[in-house]
Amino acid sequence: GSAQELLQEAQASSNYVKGNMRLDCENDIPVLYSTVVAPPTMKSPLLDCVQNKPDVETPLRKLRRERLKGRGGDVYISPRAKTTPKATDHFDLTAKVQEFLASARKVFLLLGDSGAGKSTFNRALEINLWDNYDKINGRIPLFIHLPTIKESERDLIAKRLKE
């Protein structure tokens, strides 16, 4: 019954291991094949607790709620930008930033006159990133409004996360 079906499947398969297994069975050669199964990839809060792994998702959910709480029903229009002040061609800034975030590049400099919408854009970007937050990739959206920093801090990100 089922052993015969497995042999037929192995014969039809182009898988090297299955093919060798079929030949060994046909030639009555006793061989042990490993049946190692990969551990499940699901996360278990209980297992993390037993292994003394810190819970980062609960504080992240709290941070996300806090950051998204203040967002209202305001209309937001994504700005258009230029590569240089003298350039004549404009592009959608949001699309360019999303492209940047998907790349391996590390620095994206956003310049503009006072009141041009840089902070508004970055707040909207943070909301968009929280809306699309994926704990698998490990990136945490964090908006730090630099003018509110009173003194030079060495560890700005850690301080902001503690708040």
From TrEMBL:
Top-level taxon: Eukaryota
Gene3D superfamilies: P-loop containing nucleotide triphosphate hydrolases
Protein name: NACHT domain-containing protein
Provenance organism: Entomortierella chlamydospora
